[in-house]
Amino acid sequence: MTQTTYPPADRPTMYFIGVTTAKSSIMKVFPQWAAYLDLGDCLIRGIDLKQHDRPERYREVVAHIKSDPLSLGALVTTHKIDLLNACRDQFDHLDEYAGLMGEVSSISKRGRKLIGHAKDPITSGLALEAFLPDGYWAATGAEVFVMGAGGSSIAVTWHLMRAEHGPNRPSKIIVANRTRPRLEEIERLHKRFDPGFPTEYHHTPQPELSDAIVGRLKPGSLVINATGLGKDWPGSPITDAALFPQGGIAWDFNYRGDLMFLDQARARQRERNLRIEDGWLYFIHGWTRVIAEVFHASLPVEGPVFDELSAIAARVRG
């Protein structure tokens, strides 16, 4: 077994595996949620790893969670694909989405078994459908441009491609990424998903290349910042010159940081009649789904309890 240098937990503990975890609102939100949900004397701890860290770093974290009795599980962000690639053999079971997406965004335990889950296919869909009008794609014929090819991008594009949506799907999905390997991986997965409508993949090491794609989108199209830029690292995947689609939607998966992408969208909002969404609702759905797994709690995705959890988070956020 991989050795671990992490100290044993002294009370039931959930981990947050990311890059800049101390800056996340969850560090203040979690204690309030735990009290409201009556989860008992528990805490959350952040574990910061470098983007695309060494496999042994991921294995050490997973080994600690697996072997330590009071370490109950974790939410994983940024490292979802790398962690599964490094630690697949350490899990006793992967849920259907983890296997399909090739990522783990949630770690929990069932007895002595370590379980890996991919929650993004569920949570990204919940967040998207909360602000997207019914029948939007069928009514507009709009496209989707996703910047970033990590786990969140895989998940949201899978949701958009699902055959059960029938004619209410984008006319095209375009994915851009700064590096080729992740771009090639998401293209491979999309072929497996078999959406039945056009897809494109663009290597965009410079933001000006993404600007050109944004400028070609159909009216009403959705532009997504699914990179860590604006949260874990400063900046944006586009430049200030990018011309958003008329009547389109700008959605940033981030809700904290310099949020330059959202500032760029706001500068064009009146001119282009844009709808602008940040990642706050995605944050709420993402964390509540993982907390439900880690603490084996039944948490709704809507209704009075979900509304109160959202209100608690909003008060803490300020």
Describe the structure.
This protein is of the alpha/beta class and 318 residues long. The chain has 2 domains: 13-118 and 281-317, Leucine Dehydrogenase, chain A, domain 1 (Rossmann fold, 3-Layer(aba) Sandwich); 122-278, 3-Layer(aba) Sandwich (Rossmann fold), CATH 3.40.50.720. 42% of the residues lie in helices and 17% in strands. It has helices spanning 26-37, 55-67, 80-87, 96-101, 120-131, 136-140, 151-161, 180-193, 207-216, 260-272, 280-294, 304-317; strands at residues 13-18, 43-48, 71-76, 93-94, 106-110, 113-117, 144-147, 173-177, 199-203, 222-225, 249-252, 275-277. The strands form 2 sheets. Strands 2-1-3-5-6-4 form a 6-stranded mixed sheet, sandwiched between helices. A 6-stranded parallel sheet has the order 9-8-7-10-11-12, with helices on both faces. Strand 11 (249-252), helix 10 and strand 12 form a beta-alpha-beta unit. The longest helix has 15 residues, at 280-294. It is globular and about 55 Å long. The protein starts with 12 loop residues before the first strand and ends with a helix. The relative contact order is 0.13. The model has no long low-confidence stretch (mean pLDDT 94).
Task: Fill in the keyword field for this structure.
about 325 residues, alpha/beta, Rossmann fold, 2 domains, six-stranded mixed sheet, six-stranded parallel sheet, about 15% strand, globular
